[in-house]
Design a protein that fits this description.
The protein is mostly helical. The chain has one domain. It is built from five helices and no strands. Helix 3 packs antiparallel against helix 4. The radius of gyration is 18 Å and the shape is elongated. It starts with 14 loop residues before the first helix and ends in a 12-residue tail after the last helix.
């Protein structure tokens, strides 16, 4: 069953501009791609913030240098995802694929943004681990800092990937009842 979608004309976007805006302004930078992308990225970033606050790892409770190590990777993910969305949209438009017009429907936008949620969670935890490792190393405990960097960081990043993948899968399951998930193969 296909939803009743209005036929809209989707235009090509400059993927480099989208990446820069996503990197500099986060969810608000997605207004360049479309207001639904900006809204969904803001909602999913809010989910990320709530989960990180629940785990007592929220960005605003961190010291100033930790904020930098946590914020920079997040902004890289926002820029990367904006670039990716525009790349796919431009290729579909060039191929004259009718699916290009559906890329701005809420189900498709939501499914694209759940990937952003996973990336933000992974890069955020990685940035915090690298910061903690460097702080321990420069605090004259080289062995403990290297162990955290080499062993702890992959474990924590994997855990974040697992946690946010479960949340994203739940969101995708709810959304895909109305639209086929184009990001997963059909059975």
């Amino acid at each position: 069953m296909k939803p009743n979608l209005k036929a809209t004309k989707t235009s090509k976007k400059n993927k480099k501009v989208a990446a820069i805006l996503g990197f500099l302004f986060g969810p608000l930078g997605y207004l360049y791609i479309g207001w639904k992308y900006a809204l969904m990225s803001l909602i999913l970033f809010s989910i990320f913030t709530i989960v990180s606050m629940f785990l007592n790892l929220d960005l605003y409770s961190l010291e100033i240098y930790a904020r930098f190590f946590a914020r920079l990777p997040i902004m890289i993910v926002f820029g990367w995802k904006a670039y990716t969305i525009c790349s796919i949209q431009n290729k579909l438009i060039e191929a004259n694929d009718s699916f290009a017009n559906r890329l701005h429907s809420f189900p498709i936008v939501t499914m694209a943004m759940t990937d952003l949620l996973i990336g933000v969670g992974m890069f955020y935890s990685g940035g915090l681990c690298i910061y903690a490792s460097l702080k321990i190393i420069f605090g004259n405990n080289l062995f403990k800092g290297l162990v955290l960097l080499v062993v702890g960081t992959p474990i924590i990043v994997w855990t974040a990937n697992f946690l946010f993948s479960i949340i994203a899968a739940g969101i995708d399951t709810i959304v895909s009842q109305k639209e086929n998930n184009i990001f997963k193969p059909k059975k």
